[in-house]
Amino acid sequence: MNNMFSVEGKVALVTGATGALGQVLAKAYGYSGAKVMMTGRNEAKLKALEEEFKAENIDCAYYVADPAQEDQVADLIKATVEKYGEINILAICHGYNKPQNILDQSVADWQYIMDADCKSVYIVCKYVAQQMVDQGKGGKMVVVTSQRSKRGMAGYTGYCTSKGGADLMVSSMACDLTAKYGINVNSICPTVFRSELTEWMFDPESEVYKNFLKREPIGRLAEPEDFVGFALFLSSDASNFMTGGNYDCSGGYLTC
Predict the structure, then answer these.
(1) In whole angstroms, what is the distance from residue 204 CA to residue 26 CA?
(2) What is the pLDDT of residues 103-128, one digit of tens each?
(3) How far is C-alpha 89 from the geometric centre of its chain's CA atoms?
(4) Which end of the chain, N or C, is less packed with Cβ atoms under 10 Å?
(5) CA distances from 99 to 89, 93, 121, 228 (A)
(6) Which residues contact residue 84 at a Cβ distance below 8 angstroms, ignoring those fewer than 6 apart?
(7) Is 206 helix (H, G, I), strand (E, B) or coil?
(8) Which letter, b or e, does each residue of 78-99 get, where b requires 16 or more Cβ atoms within 10 Å of its Cβ?
């Protein structure tokens, strides 16, 4: 029981580590005793995070990579294994959106969203899964998608499609990987949470904020820290009998 919820000594690879949720989760893994490899496309932000975390005695490193580029992902896995010897946990926190009405959205813009939010998940999970299979010790994959994977929204044809695809991919990968290889694959489906891109939505006087609260039984919008506990749970032995799930972390948004 003492070790059931622990990730101490594990190696966690976090994509989108420079984002609001990615950096909070990377720090949480580090505080919990895991070794953390952070990745993203912005080297300056990654380097700043590494310096900050190391000052807090977190064992971490970074590697610059675009998760939608297969060759870069292959190099990322190689660099992680060279640094830490293995990969035990994968947390996918990267994502992209460009809201547009379908009548205004170009096929190229739609495809970019699909590549950033769906194709990239496939590539990263494929390469990490192969590494975990080669290690022969199983592993945990946690993919952050969105409650928009379950409900459509005006201007979100690309985003909803990509996140819905990622959730179905998670369920399918679990069928491939869990029973035979001991790799648990699950997704977390959050509601809107505070970030540089969404800060404007948190103005309590705005109509957007007020409309959101009408459908949030929990009574507030989310902070990145609200998802850390569940992500750590899905990364630990406490969730060994959970796989292929797309778990609502929306403060009750999907129930109303």
Answers:
(1) 29
(2) 999 999 999 999 999 999 999 999 99
(3) 11
(4) N
(5) 31, 19, 20, 27
(6) 11, 35, 37, 61
(7) coil
(8) ebbbeebeebbbbbbbbbbbee
Residues marked active site are found at 159
Token pair in block for residue 145: 């998608």
Residue-wise pLDDT tens digits, 212-243: 888 888 888 889 999 999 999 999 999 999 99
| Residue type at position 218 | I
pTM: 0.95
The two three-digit tokens of residue 35, written as one number: 């070794």
For residue 113, list its beta bridge partners: none
Contacts of 236 (CB under 8 A, 6+ apart): 4, 5, 6, 7, 140
Question: DSSP alpha helices (H): ranges in the chain?
Answer: 20-31, 43-55, 70-84, 107-114, 120-135, 157-181, 207-213, 228-235
Task: Specify burial of residue 155 (Cβ count, 10 A radius: 0-12, 13-18, 19+).
Answer: middle
In contact, 13 and 39? CB cutoff 8 Å: yes
What are 140-153's pLDDT values in tens digits?
Answer: 999 999 888 888 88
Instruction: Pick the closest to residue 150 from 14, 248, 83 (CA basis).
Output: 248
State the CB neighbour count (10 A cutoff) for residue 169. Answer: 19
CA-angle at 231, arms to 92 and 153, nearest 5°: 65
